[in-house]
Amino acid sequence: MRVEILGQERRRRWRDDEKLAIVMSVGVAGATITEVAHRYDVTRQQIYTWRGELKKKGLLSASANALFVPIDMNSVQTDVQECREGRSGMIELRLSRGRILRFGSAVDTAALTQLIRAVEAA
Prior knowledge:
Layout: H1 16-24, H2 33-40, H3 44-56, H4 80-85, E1 90-94, E2 100-104, H5 109-121
Antiparallel strand pairs: 1-2
Helix pairs in contact: 1-3
C-alpha cells in the first residue's frame, strides 16, 4: 500500500511576534478568541497555548488584559472623623477567581459598583 500526500504542508511555523499580534488581537473591537482563531485559521486552543508560552517568555505581561476604569475620587468619602463616628473599619469583599477588594466602610456605593464591575470584567 502506497500513500501520497498532495498539496501544501499543513503545519505552519509562527514567529513570536506573529503569535503576539494574534494573541493581542483578541478583544480588539470586541473580537472573541473564536473569531480571531477563525480569522488566522488556527484553533482556539492554539491561541491559549501561545498566550501561556508568551507569558513564560516575558513577551506578554500577565495583566495584558487589564481594564482601567476612571473613578471620581470626589465621590469617595475620605473624612476620617466621620468614618470614626459612623461605621468604622475595613470591608473585605471576595470576588470570583480569588480576587479580593478591601475598602473603607464609608466608600460611595456608585464608585464601589463601578470598581466591582471593572474587576469582574478583567
